Amino acid sequence: MSRTVLVTGGNRGIGLAIARAFEKNGDRVAITHRGSGAPEGLYGVRCDITDPASVDEAFAQIEKDLGPVEILIANAGVTEDTLLLRMSEDQFEKVVDTNLKGSWRVAKRASSKMLRGKFGRMVFISSVVGLQGNAGQTNYAASKAGLVGLARSITRELGSRNITANVVAPGFVETDMTAELTDDQRKAYLETIPAKRLAQPEEIAAATVFLAGEGAGYINGAVIPVDGGLGMGH
Q1: Is the dihedral of CA 15, 205, 134, 175 positive or negative?
Q2: What transmembrane ranges does the database entry give (predicted)?
Q3: How far apart are CA 45 and CA 152, in angstroms?
Q4: Which of 70, 196, 200, 232 is most buried when burial is the number of CB atoms within 10 A of its CB?
């Protein structure tokens, strides 16, 4: 059955791989972007998830053209890395407002129609950094850890209405960002990963599609690590 899927930040990287996986699955897929436009074949809507009015307008447009959002993938995020003592208030607030509060905004907006339809799947894309921390990323780690509490609280509130809220926590993934690593940095990261390789975006997408499917209807409030064993035990 084709369902309406929204992937925030679905115009590149992990988000794009997730959007393509749902598209291949036969779903109606919308992605948000901040002005870059949508990749070929995908329905795109401009949205700034730090702006409640922009979020509401984006959802209204999707609902008009594709129908109510039944599957929400909260993927959009930013980084502003620096050490704790050097991090400004603005750097901390920008990351938390986008990664955590932005996810809360889209979840809140999607939930009303999910409740009305008595069905909903929410998947929040977190990070292994949110589970084990990382030097220079106090803002990012806090925002990604917060997604776990967000998803589990939604589970407590909406789980009886056939709505699930789960978290996927990727490790290091082959994206444009990791392509900029030096050979020494890549070697250092690989030494910490039991699988001895970085993930492909499609591997994150596969876990996300599974959690949104009928076969995962009894999985709720879970954190699924896709990190090659990097964060095991968390």
Answers
A1: negative
A2: none
A3: 28
A4: 70
Q: Which domains does the chain have, with CATH numbers?
A: 4-223 (3.40.50.720)
The answer to whether the predicted template modeling score (pTM) of the entire model surpasses 0.90 is yes
CA–CA separation, 233 and 23 (whole Å): 33
Q: Which amino acid is it at 230? A: L
Residues acting as catalytic residues:
140
Measured between alpha carbons, how far is 100 from 152 in angstroms, rounded to an integer?
14
CB 118 within 8 A of CB 74: no
For β-strands 71-74 and 43-46, DSSP reports them as: unpaired
Confidence of residue 92 (pLDDT cuts 50, 70, 90): very high
pLDDT at 233 over 70: no
The identity of residue 198, as a single letter, is: L
Instruction: For residues 193 and 190, give the distance between their C-alpha atoms in angstroms, rounded to a whole number.
Output: 5
DSSP-based three-state secondary structure for 204: helix
211: nearest Cα among 149, 164, 146, 169 = 164
Residue 49 has φ and ψ, to the nearest 5°, of: -70, -5
